[in-house]
Amino acid sequence: MDYFSSDWHLGHSTIIRLAQRPFATVEDMNKYIEYMALKGKKKGDSIYFIGDMGNDKKSIEHVLSEIKNHKIQFYWILGNHDNKLPLTRYRKYCADIQYARTIKRDHVKTYLHHFPCTTWDGSFRNSYHLYGHVHNGSHELERMGQKMTGKALNVNLEFHDYEMWTWDEIVSFMNTREDNWDII
After folding, report:
1. In the chain, at which residue ranges do the beta strands (DSSP E only) sit?
2. Is the pTM of this model over 0.85?
3. So where are the chain's domains?
């Protein structure tokens, strides 16, 4: 099974306040994210993580090693907070690390990028766009709802009850959305 998520921000204590996350401490948040990353997953499953892993190198390495130990494939799409991390240190835990990725599931092309895009390859032909970056309580949130059209979805865990999205959940959500307006 494929799972999708973004914006874990491991070790980032300020995100608890800024995004109104329901955790008392950064340690509580890190423990929950590790639990969530492993809960219900089995050997051969894939996690597509769409950016902003965190700033605590030890916590990041611990979570990634646990995911790998459970034989779960981890695809890391980099976010703006990931650029300062020692990515070579984490490659051994990941199936791939890229700035963007296009996958195809059930004949549907899906563009994965940390930042929200108003158009993407095939956005007017039933293709999907999964992104993160925008947080609960962020000043962009209201405008994003007005600007984002088509089959685009913010997979930030803050907007899905701190759980990952499954592919089936994404398809159900996208079936309620129109294709994008861009026909160029």
Report:
1. 2-5, 46-50, 73-77, 96-98, 100-105, 108-113, 128-131, 152-154, 165-166
2. yes
3. 2-174
Distance CA(180)–CA(34), nearest Å, equals 35
C-alpha span between 11 and 25 (Å, rounded): 10
**CA-to-CA distance for 123 and 178, rounded, in angstroms?**
10
Q: For 50-124, where are the alpha helices, taking DSSP H only?
A: 57-69, 87-90
Render pLDDT for 55-87 as a digit per residue (tens, 0 to 9). Answer: 999 999 999 999 999 999 999 999 999 999 999
Give the architecture-level CATH label for domain 2-174.
4-Layer Sandwich (3.60)
Phi-psi region of 130 (alpha: psi -120 to 50; beta: other; left: phi over 0): beta
How many whole angstroms separate alpha carbon 103 and alpha carbon 111? 7
Mean pLDDT of the chain: 92
